[in-house]
Design a protein that fits this description.
One of its GO terms (molecular function) is biotin synthase activity. It comes from Pichia kudriavzevii. This protein has one domain: TIM Barrel (Alpha-Beta Barrel). 37% of the residues lie in helices and 18% in strands. The protein has 13 helices and 15 strands. A hairpin with a 2-residue loop joins β11 and β12. It starts with a strand and ends in a 15-residue tail after the last strand.
Length: 394
């Protein structure tokens, strides 16, 4: 058994010329002591937190993470492309767009048995959320396909006890209700980037179209999975605006995937990164700032390290976990790009003392954590219940 411990942390914020230490102190105190997630952050609030010295930002995001999550748990998620290629959207980063000459052959929707067998393999390898993606702009006129996907969701839920998530493009109130009735856990619809940079990446679907889809999912009572892609030539201001949009939604996303762009040959973004955006390189510290700030702003959300993780070294991934990431995508593929395999991920997690999160169960923090903030003691956590020690299945 893992017993409860009491952990007291004392930290004084270092002053820095690029922001007001008084304002930063106030924002941190608000973020770290709120009982309910805040959805009224201003753009200036987000910028102030994002601009903290990285050493402090990492520390406070870790404190926030340990208040709301068991820091030893990482959810393993597996993503399967159930319908590949032929999408009518013109997303400049996507190999599946019919506008981009990437050599990818379009396929039909996979059948139920094929998808179920893939889900069984994922579960056998400790994945607890099975995600299914189709290369469609929207679900309008796809009544038959929607029913087939609903059957996939129901079978995986009922027979495997796994969480399910789908990403099918734009969806209306009636369609999301049908998926909910099938037992769908979450619906993924990324905002991708900031509103201002979005128009440089996609023209066939508006930013507001994406927000409307997210609202439909929220209104239906299905969990929202929404995040974005880093490394598409965006600026620091775009990172801040991206986080501001997510953190001021009516309800914070239940899960927030952070993707690191893989520039696929034949996509317009691959060439633009060499020319138009050649001075805008995505660095590890940019990624960490986004993760840390997201954790401070959206304390209860599960932050998922998604596409592009296979390009990150082990110590870089560990820094992301420490900053607040508590889910990864693992398995055979991330739709059409490479993904770190299950065995490799299991070995890495075991090495660093992490265990897989169970399906439909995110346990409370293991410690009763108090923070002495600038000489004022603030009790931040409810006392967590004892939990049984879990071990990795190898």
């Amino acid at each position: 058994m893992i017993g409860l411990t009491s952990l007291t942390i004392k930290r004084t914020l270092a002053t820095n010329a690029i922001f007001s230490s008084t304002n930063a102190n106030k924002l941190l105190q608000t973020a770290l002591t709120t009982k309910d997630p805040i959805t009224t952050w201003t753009r200036e609030d987000v910028s102030s937190l994002f601009s903290l010295p990285l050493n402090d930002l990492l520390f406070y995001s870790q404190v926030q993470h340990r208040q709301h999550h068991n820091p030893s748990e990482i959810q393993l998620c597996t993503l399967l492309s159930i319908k590949t290629g032929g999408c009518t959207e013109d997303c400049k980063y996507c190999s599946q767009s019919s506008h981009n000459d990437t050599g990818l052959k379009a396929t039909k929707l996979l059948d139920l048995d094929t998808v179920f067998e893939k889900a069984k393999i994922a579960k056998a390898n400790n994945s607890t959320r099975f995600c299914m993606g189709s290369a469609w702009r929207e679900m309008k006129g796809r009544k038959s396909a929607l029913k087939k996907i609903g059957d996939m969701v129901k079978k995986i839920n009922d027979e495997l006890g796994m969480e399910t998530c789908v990403t099918l493009g734009m969806i209306n109130d009636e369609q999301i209700k049908e998926l909910k009735d099938s037992g769908l856990t979450a619906y993924n619809h990324n905002i991708d980037t900031s509103r201002s940079h979005y128009k440089n990446v996609i023209s066939t679907r508006s930013y507001d179209d994406r927000l409307r889809t997210i609202k439909s999912v929220n209104d239906a009572g299905v969990k929202v999975c929404s995040g974005g892609i880093l490394g598409m030539g965006e600026t620091v201001d775009d990172h801040i605006d991206f986080l501001h949009t997510l953190s001021t939604m009516e309800k914070h996303p239940e899960s927030l995937p952070i993707n690191k762009l893989i520039a696929i040959k034949g996509t317009p973004i691959e060439e633009e990164l060499k020319t138009k955006y050649k001075e805008r390189k995505l660095s590890l510290d940019n990624i960490l700032r986004v993760i840390c700030t997201a954790r401070l702003l959206m304390p209860k959300s599960i932050i998922r390290l998604a596409a592009g993780r296979y390009t990150m070294k082990e110590h870089e991934q560990l820094l992301c976990f420490s900053a607040g990431v508590n889910a990864i995508f693992t398995g055979e593929k991330m739709l059409t790009t490479m993904c770190t395999g299950w065995d490799e991920d299991i070995a890495m997690l075991k090495k660093w003392g992490y265990v897989p999160m169970e399906a439909f169960k995110k346990t409370d923090p293991k410690t009763d954590l108090n923070v002495i903030y600038n000489d004022t003691k603030i009790t931040l956590l409810q006392k967590a219940e004892e939990e049984k020690e879990k071990t990795l299945a190898i």
